[in-house]
């Protein structure tokens, strides 16, 4: 059976919440991680603040500015995560920009990430597939994944090269520009998911534009998962509100998933 078949579309659905580490402070971040674990999310995309987050829209940029401090450096956040038992937090993909990995040193990063535990890999939006070979090799040596990006404007030839090396999931960027806008039209996106699935069995998770559970419901009719960023970041200062909103996204995921396949 081909990966893009109807049966494949009935498989597990993933909700991956994004949150900015240290916004408004690390005590709140810990509460949110624990809440996400309790909700049963498949993984969390944990943003590491960076001074020039070029892929992010105003909401996440402002969150990064609020959280920038020595305590939220890449190294210090890994040390901080180590204080939370692995079984009490979801699996984590770190999301930040390549300068932070370069400054820390890739070998130092993967060594500390292994020691921290529960780190599945990283999402690095300013690192192109063509420039990522050595990074990917270093990550693989530590059993960490480097999540690839595909967008609606990615050529067929380049898409095939990218997904041939895909690992945990493929990050499909649904909109041009930065995060924070709402996705309205999904027809082209659905076709792109089918194109990707014709080349790989890796799950396809859609990010950018998932601003409401209603939008998530539309996307999860054809994609394997959604990454929810700006909409949740707006609620980070209020853990109760954040948790309630995350729960509503997970409820949607469960509603479009066969009972045995829930991975919210």
Automatic annotation (TrEMBL):
<keyword id="KW-0028">Amino-acid biosynthesis</keyword>
<dbReference type="InterPro" id="IPR011060">
    <property type="entry name" value="RibuloseP-bd_barrel"/>
</dbReference>
<keyword id="KW-0822">Tryptophan biosynthesis</keyword>
<comment type="pathway">
    <text>Amino-acid biosynthesis; L-tryptophan biosynthesis; L-tryptophan from chorismate: step 5/5.</text>
</comment>
<dbReference type="InterPro" id="IPR013785">
    <property type="entry name" value="Aldolase_TIM"/>
</dbReference>
<comment type="similarity">
    <text>Belongs to the TrpA family.</text>
</comment>
<keyword id="KW-0456">Lyase</keyword>
<comment type="subunit">
    <text>Tetramer of two alpha and two beta chains.</text>
</comment>
<feature type="active site" description="Proton acceptor">
    <location>
        <position position="45"/>
    </location>
</feature>
<dbReference type="Pfam" id="PF00290">
    <property type="entry name" value="Trp_syntA"/>
</dbReference>
<dbReference type="InterPro" id="IPR002028">
    <property type="entry name" value="Trp_synthase_suA"/>
</dbReference>
<dbReference type="GO" id="GO:0004834">
    <property type="term" value="F:tryptophan synthase activity"/>
</dbReference>
<protein>
    <recommendedName>
        <fullName>Tryptophan synthase alpha chain</fullName>
        <ecNumber>4.2.1.20</ecNumber>
    </recommendedName>
</protein>
<keyword id="KW-0057">Aromatic amino acid biosynthesis</keyword>
<dbReference type="GO" id="GO:0005829">
    <property type="term" value="C:cytosol"/>
</dbReference>
<comment type="function">
    <text>The alpha subunit is responsible for the aldol cleavage of indoleglycerol phosphate to indole and glyceraldehyde 3-phosphate.</text>
</comment>
<feature type="active site" description="Proton acceptor">
    <location>
        <position position="56"/>
    </location>
</feature>
């Amino acid at each position: 059976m081909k990966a893009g078949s109807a049966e494949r579309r009935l498989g597990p659905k993933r909700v991956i919440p994004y949150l900015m580490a240290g916004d408004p402070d690390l005590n709140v971040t810990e509460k949110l991680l624990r809440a996400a674990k309790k909700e049963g999310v498949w993984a969390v995309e944990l943003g590491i603040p960076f001074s020039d987050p070029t892929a992010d829209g105003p909401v996440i940029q402002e969150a990064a500015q609020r959280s920038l401090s020595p305590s939220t450096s890449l190294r210090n956040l890994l040390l901080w995560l180590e204080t939370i038992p692995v079984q009490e937090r979801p699996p984590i993909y770190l999301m930040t920009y390549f300068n932070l990995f370069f400054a820390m040193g890739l070998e130092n990063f993967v060594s500390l990430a292994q020691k921290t535990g529960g780190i599945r890999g990283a999402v690095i939006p300013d690192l192109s597939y063509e420039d990522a070979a050595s990074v990917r090799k270093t990550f693989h040596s530590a059993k960490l994944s480097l999540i690839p990006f595909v967008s609606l404007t990615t050529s067929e030839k380049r898409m095939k090269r990218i997904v041939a090396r895909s690992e945990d999931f493929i990050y499909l960027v649904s909109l041009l520009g930065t995060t924070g806008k709402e996705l309205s039209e999904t027809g082209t996106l659905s076709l792109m998911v089918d194109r990707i699935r014709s080349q790989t069995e890796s799950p396809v998770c859609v990010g950018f534009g998932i601003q409401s559970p209603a939008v998530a419901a539309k996307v999860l009719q054809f994609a394997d998962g959604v990454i929810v960023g700006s909409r949740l970041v707006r609620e980070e200062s209020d853990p109760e509100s954040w948790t309630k909103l995350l729960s509503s996204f997970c409820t949607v995921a469960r509603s479009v998933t066969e009972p045995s396949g829930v991975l919210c």
